[in-house]
Write a structure and sequence with these properties.
single chain; 3 helices
């Protein structure tokens, strides 16, 4: 193999390992999304107490285009039940998540995970009829 190919593979492997360690360390506590090792359709990890929050069922409406989220998403210890996940905070969202991008919720709750810029990364919804 050429030297540049080997270097490229090493850099890519390092990035994957660092990303995995960040997700693991941030999501080290016992929460369903953390344990599942979930990824969205783009292959991004759904991880971190700081980026995954719970959405009240009252703030989610199933419509023709997907799940309409309108209202606060709760992050931190109140969402996860783990005190070390830090103080509780809320952020308002107003967006539609296509059904094709929704993942099955491991605990029957609605969860929204965001990127550092606030855009949606993952969305978990309970199975239909539950």
């Amino acid at each position: 193999m050429s030297r540049t190919l080997v270097q490229s593979l090493l850099v890519q492997t390092s990035l994957v390992l660092v990303s995995s360690l960040i997700c693991f360390s941030v999501f080290a506590h016992d929460a369903p999304i953390r344990q599942g090792g979930y990824k969205n359709l783009a292959g991004e990890w759904c991880c971190g107490a700081g980026d995954c929050g719970i959405v009240s069922p009252n703030n989610v409406k199933a419509g023709s285009g997907g799940y309409a989220l309108q209202g606060p998403v709760t992050y931190g210890a109140s969402a996860t039940g783990v005190e070390s996940d830090g103080p509780t905070w809320r952020e308002d969202v107003n967006e539609v998540v296509p059904y094709s991008k929704a993942l099955p919720s491991p605990d029957g709750a609605y969860w929204r995970c965001k990127r550092p810029d606030g855009s949606p990364r993952c969305f978990f919804a309970p199975p239909s009829g539950s």
